[in-house]
Amino acid sequence: MLEFHLSTILFTIINLLVLFLLMKKFLFARVNAVLEQRAALVKQEISSAQDNNRQAQELKAQYESKLTDAHHEAAKIVADAQNRAQRVYEGKMAEAATDAKRLRSEAEAQILTERDAMLRGARNEVASLALLAAAKVAQRSMDGADDKALVDPFLAEVGERT
Prior knowledge:
By secondary structure, the protein is mainly alpha-helical. It has two helices and no strands.
């Protein structure tokens, strides 16, 4: 059977205490040192990750700021281009209106010139017909400038009536 002796229990306790002290001195100190190094490394990695995260946030903020500035600049460029295009359009429209007025004036002047030429031609034709009719009536030829002088006042009077 199992016997318990006080001396065996005391030696066992002393052995355990000696074993514990030796382990504490040689084993636990090294294990604690490794655990402390590991904890320091983890703290350093966490700190590095936080620094990297902070830097990434700063870069993101800078990027967003530059992107916003670029959007504003692009909007400004588009607005300037639209303004320039509007000014060019208005200039071209004014130039076209001026050209249209000029062409209309030229056309009206040409029409008046042609109308005057037609009226002169018609008057000359009427004068020739009147002279021919008068010659037939008078049975003689009326070619002289004095004969035309007789017809011109008549045509002028007829022209005023029309």
